[in-house]
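hey so u asked for the seq, here:
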Amino acid sequence: MKINYKIVVFSLLFGFITFNSYFLLIKQSIKSELISNYEEEINFKKKIDSKKNAKFLKNKIKFKISKKGIHIVFPKEKNYLNLNINYSLIRYSNSLLDNNNSMNTKNNYFIIISSKTLKKGNYNLILRWIVNNKEFLIEKDIIWKN
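ran it, structure tokens below
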């Protein structure tokens, strides 16, 4: 049985048109998650800028772990009194152990995240605060053993 080249060209052209029509008509109705919103991009940019602001602080923030909890010590500067700090403790292995809260430094230069809220394991600590209309963000990996 001989195959005519006209039949081969016709069947390839028919397959090509069918394939393109499928993507044009069927796949067009499926919502794509590859396109991000403008707001998401701006929030991501803010996050990068906040991390950069925290990286270039003159006096770094110190983290200490004790039996009472996680101590976060801020520099002894006027700007850090009565500072509102939002923190998130994220536990990737169990989202039920995540902890989001806000605290105030009041008349101190430190805050303590109580050990009662922590279970043994790895956490990602995210601190957010604003000083002089500048946003700051620090991410720190914490291993809680107590």
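The chain has a mean pLDDT of 85. The longest helix spans residues 5-25.
lmk if thats what u needed
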